[in-house]
Design a protein that fits this description.
Blueprint lengths: L1 E2 L3 E3 L6 H6 L5 E3 L2 H19 L26 H9 L6 E4 L2 H16 L7 H10 L5 E2 L2 E3 L8 H11 L4 E4 L2 E4 H8 L8 H8 L3 H32 L8 H7 L2 H13 L15 H4 L1 H24 L6 E3 L14 E3 L7 H29 L22 H16 L22 H31 L8 H13 L10 H13 L9
Parallel strand pairs: 2-3
Antiparallel strand pairs: 1-2, 4-6, 5-7, 7-8, 9-10
Length: 514
């Protein structure tokens, strides 16, 4: 998917940066190549349905849905659209974030534009037009098992684009028909194939996983930098980052993260007063962060594959392909399971484990920093007048609660299969739950990083030394510019969020860093 500052072309798979941009108005262009693919796929589908000879059975076009596939569908093609969507209006709970909804629809637009779903070009044109506005469907959080795609959430999105249900425009929730009219958009007109193609994919799961992955990667980079700043403020010896030591460890993530941390600590002067061996939250940080890097690289691969894959059923191959088991090479329609979100489910569960351990690290480093027995003699809770002032005590308590919430939600979802749909969906991946859970956990991890950053900024105010490594000093100065010292006590919730935003928007140390 090629991009300019204001335009996205449907010429290649989107990346997560484009998904993030989709939260705001964006120009999406359907180029000639995409339109040709769409026309070929639609003609092939039309010929199958209305050409000479016996009409083949095509799921969703001539049949019922799900467990009722053995029954005939509605004969009128427009009526078959309602047959697809009406029964899926069973979701519950709060609305999904606009960022996820619009990213999911951008993914759906790209997938349909590849021409394998047999949809008409007007569907993709209307989706593309939506992105130029602030229109965002109101989609309830609960209802998808992630097995036949994200059926229920995508059905709500599709209905909103038809003018049914609710949607947001300029951040205000209103009836979808009103929102479409105010945005200058026309309601979608669909047949059964169009409707099924819009709902029968893993776009919500993939979008949430990709956005969560980005947030966890940002926090991972932040924690590496904050660990370096902590080590510098305390005057630690950087030997725990020794290149030969980490090379002998044998894990590429630890080697690469250690190299980045050594670069950050270039110029460090140890105080000579620290113990021979630091606590594990410092000494073993490159091993922990390195293992997280290795795990995140696996997640990266799954996200890239999902962003570039076609999730729908059935798929239409107008020009044949590599052939089926019988060697067929003519145009074909293939029924299968490309809507099954198991890869993203596994990846999101792994992402949750990474998030939990990164959260443990941030919380333990903040605890070390506020403890006078371990922080080099700084006052307890980094308070300027302990007892009369309480410094970071509230922030440290909240950080403990954040970690508890992350741990509670880290239970894997990807293997908790429950049969449903009259045992048609007799094994399901629960990828949607795994992805949305990881998205929420990533936000808490960002707040834990912000809490630690606030503590490091306050530590210098109450007597810690200035950093001796220039890159650490740059980070501290950015924190000082953003956050005033805690003296006297004040509510610090906004300061934690400000520190988290600062960390999330800082550029990585260098382009080739892991």
């Amino acid at each position: 998917m090629l991009t300019t500052t204001d335009t996205v072309l449907l010429t290649g798979p989107p990346d997560s940066a484009v998904l993030r941009r989709a939260a705001a108005p964006l120009t999406v262009t359907v180029d000639d190549e995409a339109r040709a693919r769409l026309d070929r796929g639609r003609r092939f589908f039309h010929d199958l349905r209305h050409g000479d000879g016996e009409t083949p059975r095509i799921y969703g076009a001539t049949t019922g849905f799900g467990a009722l596939v053995g029954y005939a569908g509605r004969s009128d093609e427009a009526d078959q659209c309602d047959n697809t969507l009406a029964h899926l209006g069973a979701g519950q709970g709060p609305d999904l974030p606009h960022e996820i909804c619009r990213a999911a629809l951008l993914l759906r637009t790209w997938s349909l534009a590849q021409g394998y779903s047999g949809v008409c070009a007007e569907v993709v044109d209307r989706l593309a037009a939506m992105f130029a506005t602030t229109f965002s469907p109101a989609v309830p959080r609960y209802g998808s098992v992630g097995a036949s795609g994200d059926l229920i959430p995508l059905a709500y999105a599709t209905q909103a684009l038809r003018g049914r249900g609710h949607a947001y425009l300029d951040g205000r929730r209103r009836p979808a028909g009103e929102a479409l009219a105010a945005a200058g958009l026309r309601p979608l007109t669909l047949d059964g194939r169009d409707a099924l193609a819009l709902v029968n994919g893993t776009s919500v799961t993939t979008a949430a996983t990709a956005l969560a992955r980005d947030a966890v990667r940002s926090a991972h980079r932040s924690l590496a930098a904050l660990t370096c700043l902590l080590a510098d403020l305390l005057g630690c010896d950087p030997g725990f980052l020794d290149a030969d030591l980490l090379r002998a460890y044998g894990h590429p993530g630890a080697r690469d993260v250690g190299a980045r941390m050594r670069e950050t600590l270039t110029g460090l002067t140890p105080s000579g007063t620290r113990p021979l061996q630091e606590p594990y939250s410092i000494r073993c940080a490159p091993q922990l962060l390195g293992a997280a890097e290795d795990a995140l690289r696996y997640v990266d691969g799954v996200v890239a594959a999902d962003l570039g894959g076609i999730s729908d059923n059935p798929l239409f191959f107008p020009e044949g392909g590599d052939g089926d088991a019988r060697g067929a090479r003519k145009g074909k329609v293939v029924h299968g399971g490309n809507f099954f979100g198991q890869p993203a489910a596994f990846a999101a569960d792994l992402l949750a484990s990474v998030t939990a351990q990164l959260g443990n690290l941030a919380e333990r480093q903040l605890d070390l920093l506020t403890d006078p027995a371990r922080n080099g003699g700084l006052p307890p809770m980094l308070a300027t007048a302990p007892g009369q002032q309480h410094g970071l005590q509230g922030v440290q308590l909240a950080g403990t609660a954040f970690v508890a919430e992350i741990r509670r939600n880290a239970t894997p979802a990807s293997m908790q299969s429950l049969p449903t749909n009259l045992h048609n969906q007799d094994v399901v991946p629960f990828g949607t739950q795994a992805a949305l859970r990881s998205y929420d956990m990533a936000e808490l991890l960002g707040l834990l990083c912000g809490s630690l950053a606030l503590g490091l900024r306050q530590a210098v105010h109450v007597g810690a030394r200035r950093p001796t490594a220039p890159r650490c000093a740059d980070l501290l100065d950015a924190l000082i510019e953003t956050i005033p010292p805690v003296e006297p006590d004040r509510p610090l919730d906004a300061d934690v969020r400000a520190a988290a935003r600062l960390l999330a928007t800082r550029e990585p140390p260098r382009a080739d860093a892991p």
